[in-house]
């Protein structure tokens, strides 16, 4: 199982220079990818802009959105931005995409909330056409630049319902699970596999999961503060995640990583709860 690391750009108050230093250190370490969370109504850094900045200061590490809320974006512009980042990074981009659940994000965009699933599917179709070099209509020429990766960046689809899972089979290269226990994550992947097989796809979809973590002095308390703030809009779940889903000792984190490996995850992205550069070294030492 590969292990990636999220950047700390969602932790309130983090400075931009720390994100760049974090990316450089992650690039020098054992990590497969640098992950970026997407939200609008929150003091986080923009996902694609942050990964573009990270691409400029790194050489080998993959860049992954976990996940980008696609219906907040214009499909043509998003396709162009993703192709540009893929080209600028030398083909290191993976797009994890989802539809989002916070209505205030859509009001702030602004973008329609109720039909976001339908629009998401239209976006997936549009982006695939753009990345393959096809014109979008008889009177609309191709949109560039061409991505480095043939057919565009790999697409990981996040979905929570059986009805939405067909997107994995039709458009995706894999499934990306939301934060949850390994048992819940494996159940979701099982539905993704069914959608994949129903679409007549060969092989298996890529299996990516995410988890929170924090290490060092007072890690449990400090991680919990961040989680409660980030998930304040769904307070009961925030408390549950803070208390049960954020390993804060080396032993607990090792056990959590092993649990995800045991269910067949291809890549696990660790999302940091503490915005201090030594967190990169602590996680690197643990997985080396």
Task: Describe the model.
The chain is α/β, with parallel strands linked by helices and 288 residues long. The protein has a single domain, classed as TIM Barrel (Alpha-Beta Barrel), CATH 3.20.20. The chain contains 11 helices and 8 strands. An 8-stranded parallel β-barrel has the order 1-2-3-4-5-6-7-8, surrounded by 6 helices. The mean pLDDT is 96.
SSE blueprint and pairings:
Blueprint: E1 2-6, H1 16-27, E2 33-36, H2 47-56, E3 62-69, H3 75-88, E4 93-98, H4 103-108, H5 116-131, E5 155-157, H6 166-171, E6 174-176, H7 182-198, E7 206-213, H8 219-230, H9 235-244, H10 250-262, E8 267-272, H11 278-287
Parallel strand pairs: 1-2, 1-8, 2-3, 3-4, 4-5, 5-6, 6-7, 7-8
Unreliable residue stretches: none
DSSP, total strands: 8
Report the span from N to C terminus. Answer: 13 Å
Share of residues in strands: 5-15%
CATH class: Alpha Beta
CATH superfamily caption: Luciferase-like domain
CATH architecture: Alpha-Beta Barrel
Specify the biggest β-sheet. 8 strands, parallel, barrel
Instruction: Enumerate the strands of the largest sheet in spatial order, edge to edge or round the barrel.
Output: 1-2-3-4-5-6-7-8
Q: How would you classify the helix and strand content by structural class? A: alpha/beta
Supply the number of helical segments. 11
Cα-atom radius of gyration: 18 Å
Instruction: Give the % helix.
Output: 40-55%
Rounded average pLDDT: 96
Which keywords apply here?
288 residues; alpha/beta; 11 helices; TIM Barrel; globular
């Amino acid at each position: 199982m590969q292990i990636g690391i999220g950047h700390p750009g969602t932790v309130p108050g983090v400075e931009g220079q720390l994100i760049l230093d974090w990316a450089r250190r992650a690039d020098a370490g054992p990590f497969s990818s640098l992950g970026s969370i997407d939200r609008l109504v929150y003091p986080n850094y923009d996902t694609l802009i942050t990964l573009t900045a990270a691409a400029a200061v790194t050489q080998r590490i993959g860049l992954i959105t976990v996940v980008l809320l696609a219906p907040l974006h214009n499909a043509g512009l998003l396709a162009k931005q993703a192709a540009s980042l893929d080209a600028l990074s030398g083909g290191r981009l993976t797009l994890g995409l989802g539809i989002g659940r916070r209505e205030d994000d859509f009001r702030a965009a602004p973008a329609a909330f109720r039909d976001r699933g339908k629009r998401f599917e239209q976006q997936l179709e549009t982006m695939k056409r753009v990345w393959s070099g096809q014109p979008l209509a008889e009177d609309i020429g191709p949109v560039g630049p061409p991505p480095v990766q043939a057919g565009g960046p790999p697409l990981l689809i996040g979905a929570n319902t059986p009805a939405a899972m067909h997107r994995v089979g039709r458009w995706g290269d894999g499934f990306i699970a939301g934060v949850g226990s390994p048992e819940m994550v494996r159940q979701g992947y099982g539905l993704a596999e069914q959608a994949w097989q129903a679409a007549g796809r060969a092989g298996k979809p890529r299996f990516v999961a995410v988890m929170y973590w924090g290490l060092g002095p007072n890690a449990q308390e400090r991680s919990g503060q961040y989680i409660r703030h980030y998930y304040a809009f769904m307070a009961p779940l925030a408390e549950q995640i803070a208390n049960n889903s954020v390993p804060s000792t080396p032993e607990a984190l090792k056990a959590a990583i092993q649990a995800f490996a045991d269910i067949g995850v291809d890549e696990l992205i660790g999302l940091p709860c503490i915005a201090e550069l030594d967190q990169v070294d602590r996680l690197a030492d643990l997985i080396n």
